[in-house]
Amino acid sequence: MKRRDFLASAAALSLFVTDAWAAKKQAKATSSKATASKAKGAAGKGSKKSTSKHGQHKGKVSYKPHEPVTHTAEDPVIERPPQGTSASRLPPVKAPEPPSEWRTFEITTTVNLKNRSGAAKLWLPLPLNQDTLYQRTLGHTWAGNQANASMRRLPDGDLEVFYCEWPDSGDARLQLTTLVTTADRHFDVTKRTVAPEREDILRRNLQASQLIPNDGLAFQLGERILGRIKDPVAQAKAIYEWVVDNTIYDVSLPGCGTGDVRRQLIQGQYGGRSADINGLFVSICRAIGIPARCVYGMRTGSSRLFRSLGLGGDDATRGHHVRAEFYVPGYGWIPVDPSDVRRAISMEVLSDRDSKLISLKKILFGVWEMNWIAFNLGSDVVLPGKNAAVPFLLLPQLESSASRADPALQYSIRTRQVVL
User: Fold this and answer.
1) Do 220 and 80 have their domain in common?
2) Does 238 share its domain with 385?
3) Do 190 and 273 lie in a common domain?
């Protein structure tokens, strides 16, 4: 992409960021002046009451310690929001306006199990089963020689899968086609119009998982990053910028990485691929009491920002990608993607002072370019019909009674934009 084309796209996507943060700074300055004036008046009154004719204070003078700037997973910001911050000033709730521009993608997954023997079971992740302001699933169709097939949803609602099985997988075939429509997702710091999230969902996204801790080293790292920052949105932005500045995107790793944040924290070596980098952001947010979660999905089209942040054609077989979001009362779930900033640096060979990189870093705090679809939000997933949990579900899962010498699962995913 040419420099002028990128900057034009970046300006269009990030215009709201500049205006929003300017408005926030002005409001914060006004609030600070008012608070200081009240404090001065209160101090003057207190001094008259607490002194005697000899000019000495009656009794002891006590000083209330400052509230800690960091919360914990057990004492989250949603329960005790700092006064005077974005989480404590809630406006009347009104329905957010849906986007006007949508794109529809057709995603076709083809599975062939050749040179096998015995029974086989297959699980495929499906796009989000609930409509959002940025994604809607329009329907699924499938064909093949499976004995039975169905769509199954996990009890917590975070994940839906397509399940099928073959009594004899010697020539098993399946083709699953899904239609999904998407719209670019933008966060505007000047608009606080989102109804509160369910408490059980917020609690779930403060908890630790197999690979994502929410205490110990993660909390210590969060404390160092935040310093005296109290506002939850500003706290998350500080974490986002730290993750961007202190991680490495490793193109040699397969898939989206392992997502093992615990190992990163213990070794003090941060990075990997999208599940690792965005998982680190989620871990630190949870540790300081901000609900956060990974969102598992797949790229479906080209990018207007950087070539490396989209597909180069219609083959999405290796296009899986993990994103992240965090929650602040009144704003709802706010999208971020520090991993893609690191990916652009690595794949496009950019310096830290490159103007395109600076723009991208601003954009991807609060923006998802929806040339990507979300599959699910699940962690420590127990698939229907299985007992053991997998850390997350992003790739097709196969269970076969065949011997270990049989070849691995062969599949392909194709995507194309369609007009309805």
Assistant:
1) yes
2) no
3) yes
CB 184 within 8 A of CB 13: yes
Residues 249, 394 within the same domain: no
**Helices assigned H by DSSP within 288-326:** none
* CA neighbor of 213 nearest in space, from 246, 245, 260: 260
- Order the strands of the 171-182 sheet from edge to edge: 135-144, 171-182, 103-114, 410-418
* Domain match, 78 and 143 both: no
Task: State the Cα torsion 231-234-240-244 to the nearest 10°.
Answer: -140
Other C-beta atoms closer than 10 Å to the C-beta of 363 total 24
Are 212 and 127 members of one domain?
no
Question: Does residue 310 belong to any structural domain of this protein?
Answer: yes
Residue 41 near residue 193, CB atoms below 8 Å: no
| Spatial distance between the Cα atoms of 266 and 264, rounded to a whole number of angstroms | 6
- Cα 372 to Cα 102, 107, 171, 182, 384, distances in angstroms: 12, 11, 32, 8, 26
Retrieve residue 250's tokens.
């490793």
Q: Residue 353 corresponds to which tokens in the numbers above? A: 């002072």
Residues 224 and 331 in one domain: yes
> Would you say residue 12 lies in a domain?
yes
The tens-digit pLDDT sequence of the chain (420 residues) is 555 554 455 545 544 444 444 444 454 444 444 444 444 444 444 444 444 434 444 444 343 444 566 788 888 887 777 777 777 666 666 777 788 899 999 999 999 887 777 888 999 999 998 899 999 999 999 999 998 899 998 877 678 999 999 988 778 899 999 999 999 999 988 777 777 899 999 999 999 999 999 999 999 999 999 999 999 999 999 999 999 999 999 999 999 999 999 999 999 999 999 999 999 999 999 999 999 999 999 999 999 999 999 999 999 999 999 999 999 988 899 999 999 999 999 998 887 788 999 999 999 999 999 999 999 998 999 888 787 889 999 999 988 876 544 556 789 999 999 998
Question: Is the domain of 161 the same as that of 225?
Answer: no
Tell the residue number behind the tokens 């199954």, with chain if given. 152
> Encoding tokens for residue 301?
């089209």
Q: What's the total number of domains in the chain?
A: 2
* Boundaries of domain holding 108: 103-182+377-418
Handedness of CA 275, 278, 280, 282 (dihedral sign): negative
Q: Is residue 30 part of a domain?
A: no
Distances (CA, A) of 393 to 10, 245, 376: 32, 28, 8
Residue 64 belongs to a domain: no
Give the CATH number of the domain where residue 204 resides.
Answer: 3.10.620.30
